[in-house]
Every structure is written in structure tokens, then in C-alpha cells.
Amino acid sequence: MAEQLIDGRVIEACQQGDRDAFQLLFETYKDKVFSIAVYSSDGDRALADDITQQIFLKLFTAIRQFRGDSEFTTWLYRLVVNACLDERRRRRRLLPWGEMVAMKKPGERKPQEKQYARLEVTEAVQAAIGELKPKFRLPILLKYIEGLSYDEIASVMGCSKGTVASRLNRGHSQLAKRLSHLNNPEVWGD
Amino acid sequence: MFLRHVTKDISAYCHGELSSEESKQFAEHLIACAKCRTKFEEVKLGIKLAEQLPRLSAPDHLWSELEPLLATQSTSVARPSVPWMWQSKVAAAAVLLLVASAGVFWIYRSSRVPPKPSWFVKRLDGAPRIGSEQISNNGRLAVGEWLETDGSSRAQIDVATIGNVDIEENSRVRLLQSRADEHRLELVRGKMSARIWAPPRLFFVDTPSAVAADYGCAYTLEVKDDGGSLLHVTSGWVAMESKDLESLVPAGASCETRPGVGPGTAYFDDALPSFREALKKVDFERDAAVRSAALTTVLDHARPRDTLTLWHLFRRSEGTTDRERLYDKLTGFVTPPPGVTREGMLRFDEKMMSQWVELLEPMWTGNGGGKMVPKKVADAYFKVRNGLSRRLKEMAPK
After folding, report:
1. Is B231 helix (H, G, I), strand (E, B) or coil?
2. Which of B11, B91, B101 sits opposite A165 (nearest CB)?
3. Chain B residues 12-51 within an 8 A CB cutoff of chain A
4. What pLDDT sits at residue B370?
5. Residue ranges covered by each domain of chain A
6. Mean pLDDT of successive 10-residue segments in chain A (190 residues)?
7. Are residues B158 and B119 in contact, defined by beta-carbon separation less than 8 angstroms?
8. Strands B211-214 and B237-241
9. Fewer beta carbons within 10 angstroms: which end of chain B, N or C?
10. Residues 6 or more apart whose Cβ sits within 8 Å of residue A22
11. What is the Cα–Cα distance from A178 to B291, expressed in whole angstroms?
12. Whole-model pTM?
């Protein structure tokens, strides 16, 4: 795991303001943070760029407050989740509702027959993920993008393991309902 | 135990977050509860979809844009203490080394295949091999690896946490898939005995001529040298499937398959020998006249319980004459329920087919030691298959 390169000494160096150590931290986590940002911003990559930068900028100063009470990754993902939720709240205030909805469904303009191609499945899933409420979407991202266990997700989200299980369950159900047309052996090559 | 529905535990079960005892109770409940099974299929699809989410790569320009912003923040960051200062050159060099290592690691990781899932294997007799390695007592069979037994060796494989499979002598088997929503083996030669306590359609075995799909059951499957296979079910149900054909096989019944043909028709092991011989001709004989004559023998020697076979033949029948003969024989054993008409059945009306099979099914499981709710399993099965057939027809080139 790349995370193994980030040990106490690197974090301590970051806390001391060491730029090279921070670059190592950035290189280690940038893809994961960026992925969550993209999926949390309805696929808007320019916005995800901004969110990712904001997160690392905040991390640069906030890392001094990290005391090692929890795993660093848990602490980092908590920062990421909060930043994504904050950004969503901000956009909700700025954007009219209709615009938000229009942004969420890029796949709908595609021809129906293309829905059966595997690539389209990925696109359809990305669009459907964007339509989930954050409380259902974030556990899914932490599970499938970050590969966290239920206990780790619970720690990041500040809820119980049972709540994580329940939210994942509902998230999966909603994905399945929205994309039921993809439940087809031709799509999956079964 | 069975009163408590398990829908809220489905994701946790699929992600291996339940204990083995909880998993077992979950699976047992699911086999018996149609409501939870329906929800399970839905969540399983959701998981399959979520697994398609790719991790994205951050654009290269991010750091170059971030660096100047960090500089503006640096003034508010605590300056290094004296001990850090005297170590700073060494530390900076070390960190730079770490950055370089990260780069190398990054390149390495991009070409590295993630660890493959594997199943526990226990030696039962002799010296089974995984790949070219002989296993002493225990071993691990990873996705893509072959397990082989010779004339004096046997092994047992744990199918993740959902059951186990005994691999008999002179067998060759490969692990193809081990995911939350699909566990799949390939048996190319020899014999295996499976005991699975998973929900329907989670465990599959590919053979050269068909795929055995588990519906919560125990069975043996033997693949012969010519690629044909013989399935015998001892508990629950198994579906033998190929691209165009399928046979649903309950406990006490068997099904043969042939390369290039697929699964033959399911039959009960206690059917008359003459019935079974004739059925083989109906299933695999190329000459239409021979098949027609054999069908006459099948119809003449069928018992009420053999409606299992007649029903499958009816569903597969293409010519009107054969379909009528089979329908008439079936109605001789069980009077069709109200609303089911001859005309509707002969054109495979889906609703009528479903009503009809509900009446027939108890005959197939009454003496076979089947699972608790095979009718519902069968309903689900036929529903899925009918839907799939319709979908394939719609998608077929005109």
C-alpha cells in the first residue's frame, strides 16, 4: 500500500511545514481524494480540481492538529467528507434547483442502445451515484474507492457500524432501482 | 430464526462483514424467504454496479497550482524548531528519497496486479496439486489456478464462506471467480461433490458443455472425457444452463449434458430404465424420426412424477405436434387450473405456464427431499428465465 510510505515521521515533518514531506502526502492521496471529489460534484472535474486543492490546502494547516488519536487515513477522509458536504451545501445555495438536476444526468442524452455497452455502465453508475443523497453516496465511495471496512467508514462518518451497513444497503438498492435496465446478461457478458 | 428478515444485513453479508455464524443464518433464512431473496437480488445488483466505479487519476497540474497557495499558507504554519532545523537537511534528503520511492512505487503499482482472491484447500487423500505445487495438508487456490488430483488423491475446497466442494480422484478444476456476488469454478475433468448454503445463483460451475447454477443445494457433478457431464442433485435445486437451453433439476433427479448440445432434460433417478433410455435419444439423437419414436416411448412410460421431464420437454418443444402430445400427457396427470387453456398453453402464455407449474411442482419435490420452498425458487427461476428468453428474442437480429 502506498499509505505505508506515510508514517509518523512524514506526518511530523508535514506538521513542521516541510514542503517535500507534504508533496509526498499529496502524491499518496491525490487520486483517492480527487475521485471522491469528482463523484461528489456530479462529475464536474473542474469543480473537483478546486475541491481537491481546497482539501490539501486545509490539510496543510490542519495537519498540525492531528494528534494520532485515530488512524491518519480516517482523519484525512473525515476532512475529505466534510469538505465535499460543505461544497455541496454551498452549491445548493448558489445554483437554482433545475440546474443541479440538469447537471446530474449527463447519460440521459445518450442513445438508448448505447446503454448496453460496458463503458456506458460505468458512466451510468457514475451518474446514478451523483443522484444519491450524500449520506448514501459517501459510504459507497469510501467502500468502493477507498476500500475501507465498515468499522473504518463508521469512524470517518462518525456513526455506528450498523448505520453504515444500513446506508450501504439503501444506497445499493437505490442504485439497482435506478439502473435496473442494466440487469441484463448482454451488458455484463454473463 | 426464520421469522426475522435479513434484508438489512444483505450488504454486510456480501462484503463479508458478518461472522461465519451470522452468514450461515443469513443464508439459511434467504433460502427459505422469497421476500428477502428478492431484496437480495436487488442489493446484489447494486453492489455489482457500485463495483464498476473506477478510481480516477488527479490531473498533473494540481500540485503546480497548489504549491504557490501553500507558500501563502506557510507564514501561518509554525516554523521548525531548532532540533528540526539542524536535522532539516538530512530530513529533506530523506523525504526527497521518499518522494522518489513513491514515484518508483507508483510506476511499480501501476503495473502490479492486485492480490487475487483465493480459497482454502484441504488435502483429503494422496497428493493433490495446485498448479505445479503439491499440497501437503492445506493450501490456497487463487483465482486462475488449477487444482488437480490423480488416481489416489482427493481434496476439499472451501467455497469462500458459502460451502465446500470435494474434488474426487482424477479431476481437474480451476477457480474462475470469487466475488461477493459470484463464485465460479471450472470443472474440465473428473468429479466433484458440492454442499452450498448460499442464496440462489451465487455459486456456479462451468463444464465444457453447460454451467451448473446453484439454488441452495448439494449435488455431484461429473465431467467425462468427451466433455459431457452428469449432474445428480441430492438436496435443493440446481439449474444446468447453456446459451439456449436450461434444465432445473430438483433433489433426486439428474441431468446429462453433451458438448455442442448443452443440457439434456432433467429426469428422476427412479424413472423406468426404458424411459431414461428413450429420453437420451430425445435429447441427443440427431435423426428426427428416431427422436419422435423415442418421445412416444417417453410418453408411454412416464409416471406422474415424470411430469418434471415432460414439463421441460414441453417448454423446449418446437413442433406443434410434439407440443400437443406433451400437453395432453401432462393434463392426463394433472388437470389444468381454471383459466389455463389448451390454446394459451400451446402458445406458451407466460401467466398460464406459471399457474400450471405451481400445480405440477409438488409432484417433483414430494418424495425428493427437496428444500423448504422449492416452488418459490422454481417460480423465481422460471420468471428469470422467461424474462431472459424474451429479452434475447427482442435483441436478436431481425
Report:
1. strand
2. B11
3. 12, 15, 17, 39, 42-43, 45-51
4. 34
5. 1-104, 106-181
6. 67 87 89 89 83 88 82 86 78 46 39 52 86 91 90 91 94 93 69
7. yes
8. antiparallel
9. C
10. A14, A60, B70
11. 47
12. 0.53
Burial status of residue B318 (CB atoms within 10 A of its CB: 0-12, 13-18, 19 or more): exposed
Instruction: Tell the residue number behind the cell numbers 459510504, with chain if given.
Output: A139
The label of the residue with cell 427459505 reads: B32
Distances (CA, A) of B157 to A4, A121, B192, B194, B229: 33, 34, 10, 9, 20
Nearest to B74 among A17, A165, A179 (CB): A17
Closest residue of chain B to A149, computed from CA coordinates: B17
Where do the domains of chain B lie?
7-47, 83-112
Q: Contact A63/B73 with Cβ under 8 angstroms?
A: no
**Distances in whole angstroms, Cα of residue A107 to Cα of each of A122, A126, B47, B355:** 10, 9, 20, 40
Query: What single-letter amino acid sits at B143?
Result: V
The residue ranges of chain B whose pLDDT is under 70 are 1-3, 73-115, 366-398
What pLDDT, on a 0 to 100 scale, did the predictor assign at position B100?
62
Q: How many helices (H) and strands (E) would you count in chain B?
A: 12, 18
Cell numbers of B313, please? 420437454
- Is CATH 1.10.443.10 correct for A1-104? no
| Burial (CB count within 10 angstroms: exposed 0-12, middle 13-18, buried 19+), residue B233 | buried
Q: Which three cell numbers stand for residue B48?
A: 455489482
- What's the angle, vertex CA B326, arms to CA B324 and CA B331, rounded to 5? 95
Rounded distance between C-alpha atoms, residue B125 and residue B192, angstroms: 14
Residue position matching grid coordinates 407440443: B323
Q: Give me the residue label for grid cell 448482454.
A: A186
Phi and psi torsions of B317, nearest 5°: -65, 140
Position of cell 428465465? Answer: B385
CATH number of A106-181: 1.10.10.10
Q: How far is CA B371 from CA B198, B356, B380, in A?
A: 13, 21, 15
Report the b/e string of B23-44 with b at 16+ CB within 10 A. Answer: bebbbbbbbbbeebbebbbbbb
Rounded to a whole number, what is the largest CA-CA distance in chain A? Answer: 56
The pLDDT score that the predictor gives to residue A136 is 93
